Amino acid sequence: MAASLRLGSSLLRSSSRPILQKATYGGARYASTGSLKEVFAAKLPEQVEKIKKLRKDYGSTVVGEVTLDQVYGGARGIKSLVWEGSVLDSEEGIRFRGKTIPECQELLPKAAGGEEPLPEGLFWLLLTGEVPTEQQVRELSADWASRSALPKFVEDLIDSLPKDLHPMAQFSIAVVALEQTSEFAKAYAKGINKKDYWVYTFEDSQNLIAKLPTIAAKIYRNVFKDGKVAPIQQDKDYGFNLANQLGFGDNHDFVELMRLYLTIHSDHEGGNVSAHTTHLVGSALSSPFLSLAAGLNGLAGPLHGLANQEVLNWLTEFKREVGNDLSDKAITDYLWSTLNAGRVVPGYGHAVLRKTDPRYVSQREFALRHLPDDPLFKLVSQVYKIAPGVLTEHGKTKNPYPNVDAHSGVLLQYYGLTEASYYTVLFGVSRAFGVLPQLIIDRAVGAPIERPKSFSTEAYAKLVGASLADKTKTIGDMSAPAAIAAAPGPVQIEKKPVKFSNLLLGAGLNMFEVTTLGQPLEVVKTTMAANRADSFAGAMSRIWSRGGVLGFYQGLIPWAWIEASTKGAVLLFVASEAEYYAKTFGANDFVAGISGGMFGGLAQAYATMGFCTCMKTVEITQHKLASQGIKPPSTFQTFAGIYRKEGIRGINKGVNAVAIRQVTNWGSRFGLSRLSEQGIRRVTGKGDSEKLSAPEKILSSALGGGLSAWNQPIEVIRVEMQSKTNDPNRPKNLTVGKTLNYIYSTNGLKGLYRGVTPRIALGVWQTICMVALGDIAKEAVEKLTGDKVTAKH
Questions:
Q1: Residues contacting residue 76 through CB under 8 Å, at least 6 positions apart
Q2: Tens-place pLDDT, residues 297-308
Q3: What is the pTM of this model?
């Protein structure tokens, strides 16, 4: 590492100023004194150690699951990339190193007399995580200006390209040609220590980004103007020089727009096509020139960077159709005509976002300040007002709100840059500000070559347990059986590990749940099931008469505690075995999961829950002795008395009903909770790969738990079988069937659902404990045991 951090090398061309401690003002971290390379080099050892520790401590931790829909759906939502510069939240949009776009607009240095952030400052922030000082940004602007000259052969190459070649193709060609100047490629060919890769990658990235304005301007001036390009002004910032070389340097507002445009279009996580492609090609140790060129080719696609061009074309057609009629009805009618023709509304919707794109908002605010009366902007504003409602009613988009592409073309058009086919070139210049910092970081931390695993459709069918019609047909030159045989990993079935930390977490959460509201609700439910003529108020009064508040905790110690502390362990052990064997018989994950839960529920019933519920019920229903003035026997006296008279069968009375309840509970809760979750996703517009919030998880599980109370008759049967009620009409040697007939004959269908209300409340409380308190408990258990909790709580 020392070699890569040598600040005195010829490659560290910056000044000899000492690096000072970083300062913090108003919550923002401002960079220490020093050049960009010096500041990054100083921070690098800490970042490398942070990643090493994270991988050492949590390297085997599962960070997500992958569904077959995600595999065939463009890998949407799959967590598999590391991208330091930005994170995209579905609700609040992009954050650059933790900062929102409005925060960046406030914190990043600005040009004299300007209001928008300088893109140089954003590049600094994305690479280092710190907000630079104005002086550092000025020096970075000057450094880039000094590197901006194009080699003569690249200028000649651009001039030789046909004018009807798409500007993005010309852009890519010019960037690839700069490979001839790559310091990284030359150093690698000579042989360098891999710890020094980042230094040469840094130099290439600085040289590349410095030359992009001249390349972009030369393409624009060649294709659409007179071919003359103004020189870079050494004392000006990057945004000004780009605007000036395009031919708009005398328009202050356009210069400001370029500064804003370059900032907000720079980075949008690492999963989009241009960012991911740059990262992927770079992982093969291709130079920044080859890597960015590959990303630009992805950006040129109509589903990525060409979207703003399509938006402008659609808006122009829209304006031609409606003229000056911007009424709600005219806008609504045209939107519906677009949708009914099988077309999309361009600029609306996003793969991740579920709210209005903050990048759209920042452009809208710019327009409101600088061009509020522009006819095209007024149309955009009306579409923004009407389109979300129309798209929601249409029902085929998860996000009915505008993204960044819905606005950028309108701004460029207003200032006279009307050539829509050129817009993606500006997008490409901006995107370099996001992907090149990550490329430097990748080489600095030693990121490996990217190589995910792929399978054929037949191999995936085998993996999920599906049967395809014709398994012998070949695809290409490889038969399906051969393709399946070539997929070694997925067909190996492994048991889920049963870890002490998982057992401790389950026991702790269950103990808390039952000791708080769980046991009182259990007592109310059991009392109502045993005394089916009682109303809810009557049951509460009956319980209170048995000891006040303590009456609601009958059976807690030791039976409820034994049950709570052991049932999780039994479930995890047995479910792991059952799920494993189900998969060996060809069951898919869904069926294997239900099978594991149901067998785990059976084991719970016959191992501990059977006799625990029996003893709880006996205690709760011994109220007649107390009402007769006789002191009831203690818990253990009761247990011993039943065991002496009836043996093991006596203390397990009703265990079959408990087993049926547990099996049906698991099956129905699993299915109904999943159904509820899907409903919540439809209402909120969240995709299958997006996490539900804690309230949404609670609602989903509560609905599933509440609806699963359909099997309350089994619970009432269980209580009747385990209670010590003396009734001459009650059959002796009760079975499940006899008990069902007895309850129905004495209380009708309503009797079979006594206690269902407190049971639903109990399910809700259990859900709240597991979901709301689960993360807190998980953290405490991991700190106590030093073991990573992997079970879902």
A1: 70, 351, 687, 689
A2: 999 988 888 777
A3: 0.60
